[in-house]
Sequence to fold (286 residues):
Amino acid sequence: MDLAAWYLTHDLDDFLTRATGFLRSRPALHTVPLTVTDMLRRQGLHVYGDGAPLFGTLEDARGGVRAVLFHTPPQALSLTPLAAQDAMALAERLADLRHPVTRISAERDTAEAFADAWPLRTGATAVLDARQRLYRLVELAVLEPPAGRARVAGPGDRELLMRWHDEFVVAAGLRMGREPGEWADARLAYGGITLWEAPDGTPVSMAGATPEIAGQVRVAPVYTPAHLRGRGYAGAVTAEVSRAALERGATEVLLFTDLANPTSNALYQRLGYRGVADFATYAFED
Fold:
């Protein structure tokens, strides 16, 4: 008999004590919970919103962890891969607790399973919101870059980063998670944004990278203003960020793409990235 059950907590330290070994066992597939909980640990529990974060581990009778969740309202509930019956059990548990879930983001099959289960418990309607692919860098290709150079963003770039952050959120159809000034300051604090400059020194594109944790670094965000696209700037700055992550010792360099954007998917494959898993986000409407 399967005795696995969900253990839920608002205590990040408690969660990390239970979940860290499991998360580090598959750092590529678990890149999102690894990087988000690391940010919460370093920056505070309300980095992504005012709501109290919820964490959870699915544990078997011997205490072994089979899956985890985290939820930083108003962002989507995030799950590691689950069997359909475990997704149903989670939906029942959260519904009984009256925990509000407006969106779910997870590996595709898991997201679909929860999107099927949650309406049965709440009467909500699930609507597919986004489809993404997680890529891993296999071998960085050497491509001819456009004219210009890469440099790490500094304090003098703060206003530019804030503006481009807002433009990226709108262009990507994302929800604002942090104030742009807070986001820029956090990235500047560890050199987490690289710019590509035209020969005259004008910034034309940016790519970010998360801090290394469990050997993995995730490239995000990558943004070029609309009027500057199609000139190779995004590929050049992404290649530079990827190269720098490898030089600093990362064993996994990862990124997500929107599957609705064939241009970005083709670009990252040319750079040497290969697919790991597909993810989906569903929104729940009353």
Notes: The mean pLDDT is 95. The longest helix spans residues 108-122.
